[in-house]
Amino acid sequence: MNIVVCVKQVPDTTEVKLDPKTNTLIRKGVPSIINPDDKSGIESALRLKEKVGGEVTLLSMGPPQAEVALREGLAMGADKAILLSDRAFGGADTWATSSTLAAALKKLDYDVIIAGRQAIDGDTAQVGPQIAEHLEIPQVSYAEEINVEEGKVVVKRQFEDRYHIVEVNTPCLITSLSELAEPRYMSVKGTFDAYREKDVKVWGLDEIEDTVDKMNLGLKGSPTRVKKSFTKQAKGAGELLDDVTAEEAVEAIVTKLREKHII
Amino acid sequence: MDFKLPKEHLLAKKMFKDFAENEVKPIAAEIDEEERFPTETVEKLKKYGFMGIPMPKEYGGEGADTLAYVLSVEELAKVCLTTTTIYTAHTSLCSHPIYKYGTDEQKQKYLVPLCKGEKLGAFGLTEPSAGTDAAMQKTTAVKKGDHYVLNGSKIFITNSGHADVYIIIAMTDRSKGTKGCSAFIVESDFPGFTVGKKEKKMGIKGSSACELIFKNCIVPEENLLGKEGKGFKIAMQTLDVGRIGIAAQALGLAEGALEETVNYVNERKQFGRSIYKFQNTQFELADMRTKIEAAQLLVYKVARLKDDNLPYTTNAAMAKLYCSELASDVTRRCLQLFGGYGYTREYPIERMMRDAKITEIYEGTSEVQKMVIASSLK
Questions:
Q1: Contact check, Cβ <8 Å, A187/B14
Q2: Measured torsion, CA atoms of residues B55, B61, B63, B69, in degrees rounded to the nearest 10
Q3: Which of A18, A76, B19, B206 qualifies as a FRET site for A189, CA 20 to 30 Å off?
Q4: Where are the domains of chain A?
Q5: Cα–Cα distance, A144 to A44 (Å, whole number)
Q6: Measured between CB atoms, does A10 come within 8 Å of chain B?
Q7: How many of the other CB atoms lie within 10 Å of CB of B349?
Q8: Which of the following is catalytic: B43, B62, B363, B367?
């Protein structure tokens, strides 16, 4: 089974700071990591490979320094890695990103594509599903468990208060949650092999030109415009009503909800 | 001259750090308190390839180098010296001499499982009356037919009671002095070999240091390591390698103590401000940080010398001397900055101070290192 995992390098912080002038992320001084949902995706791909054999390829779009994230994935045990890096891809929103990744995927032989549910820096959860649409393949999102049974992929999908067990034909795309699988450490041998034995191929526009409409690439191909960005203000302390009976509490809540026209 | 770590080493360092923080640090205080050998950590070290870092892949090792090994020791020592004691004794003192002096059969039989972590290694040189004066070996090995018979005892042996394979130095010909010493590979279940009293130590309490007793212990002749009479040379060369590991331990320990202290002095308030704001604190931190930087350069340099097959005996002694004395100094000064809380077991700094002392003693005291360094100046 050939598995491709889409990987994004993200700043290692949940407190992403924005440059108020440019509305872009301030990356300087913040260490980079593999997006946690993607790292679990790598882990589950490696576990699938261990069960049924095959090859794990990592695919990322990003600046040249995103190579480090791919090397880390290789050190965990992935076999190959491709970095899509070109000025033409820069400034992409989710549409342009998924178009670029899908263009590269059209060149690869895959049975399953695993993408992290969402990245901790953008939180859109759009790229994975969009890739599946571009490729016209089935998708299962929010996977907590992936298994292969009789040639079919069976996914335990998180859904509000229950799980869905979804059976899906290959090729398919699955978006993974960080709960999916606790990522393994790199091994010592893995870290050295990641540089000495394995390769990160860098693909630019030339490599995917024939599988993508250039109008869908980079900043120009991004329909999203950031109108305004701002840091969320902390909410007030709230109103505490203690020493009230259950009935009084119900009355107070209903009154508040009415005041705010919620009910 | 390049002071940057190569890319693969940087990636490996990240892995060592993640592993140390998540797997080793959480139980560091517990294994010290309980004086418990951390079997679970050794299993994890094995799983992720720590047990054969500088050894070639053909012998089950990781195919990395001394610099990578040093980085692993440094990162783990930041959080737990016990853990590094266990695996440096295994790697530097047991796997290394078999790799360097062993026959191919010995390498296949012992080095491969050692590197894979299937077996744990140890090294026995020290005796009650042969410490710094290591030439005063009383343990004897007498050839009888196709085997040797060992009699005598060793003390303070790291990993004793847990190790499967021991490198043991014994006298095969007392009349020749140090040239009458030989090295043997002894398995833990060889007849006549038992593990005796366990020492109660000041620090590195999770690691074992017991007596080894040989009473007509039968060692097959094919387990002679190197040639007869070469045991002392093998032991001294093994300690040269070991000292690189101890230097890295001491370096990591000093760095770990400083990290804990920087966090503490920023949080701790006295006289209405964080104690970091006081010039005394800042001067202390600045001085310690500078010395740690120098120590790190000594350690990385000696690792590089070894990897480049250049002479490193003196550099290993200098690195070990400087780093171990620094570790004791830094942990003591850090504890002082912690004040009363530092003296309690609520914080790791008292453990670090207790652990630091051994780095000035084992694998050659500071005084021995000075003898080695001075001998290069003749």
A1: no
A2: -60
A3: B206
A4: 2-216
A5: 10
A6: no
A7: 25
A8: B363
Query: Residue A196's pLDDT is what?
Result: 93
Please indicate whether residue B33 is annotated as part of the active site: no
Q: Is A185 within 8 Å of B64 when comparing Cβ atoms?
A: no
Radius of gyration of chain A (CA): 22
| CATH code linked to domain A2-216 | 3.40.50.620
How much is the pLDDT for B296?
98
What is residue B93's three-state secondary structure? helix
Hey, what domains does chain B have and what are their CATH numbers?
7-116 (1.10.540.10), 121-232 (2.40.110.10), 233-375 (1.20.140.10)
Q: Which residues of A touch B14 (CB under 8 A)?
A: 72, 186
Q: How many CB atoms lie within 10 A of CB B190?
A: 19
Query: How distant is the alpha carbon of residue B162 from its chain centre?
Result: 16
What pLDDT score does A14 carry?
A: 62
User: Per-block average pLDDT, block size 10, for chain A (263 residues)?
Assistant: 94 72 73 91 94 95 95 97 95 91 96 91 86 95 88 89 92 89 92 95 95 90 83 76 90 91 85
For B251, the 3-state DSSP assignment is helix
DSSP string of chain A? -EEEEE--EEES-SS--B-TTT-SB--TTPPEEE-HHHHHHHHHHHHHHHHH--EEEEEEES-GGGHHHHHHHHHHT--EEEEE--GGGTT--HHHHHHHHHHHHTTS--SEEEEES--TTT----HHHHHHHHHT--EEEEEEEEEEETTEEEEEEEETTEEEEEEEPSSEEEEE-TTS-PPPPPPHHHHHHHHHT--EEEE-HHHHGGGS-GGGSTTTT---------PPPPPP------S--HHHHHHHHHHHHHHTT--
Joined tokens for residue B127: 């005796």
Burial bucket for residue B178 (CB in 10 Å: 0-12, 13-18, 19+): middle
Closest to B72 measured CA to CA, from B222, B369, B62: B62
Residues of chain B with Cβ-Cβ distance to A191 below 8 Å are 8, 11-12, 15, 64
CB within 8 Å of B294: residues ≥ 6 apart: B322
On chain B, the residues whose CB falls within 8 A of the CB of A193 are 63
Ranges in chain B, pLDDT < 50: none
Residue of B nearest to A67 (CA): B7
Question: Taking CA atoms, what residue in A is nearest to B69?
Answer: A188
ipTM entry: 0.87
Check: CB of residue A116 under 8 Å from CB of residue A176. yes
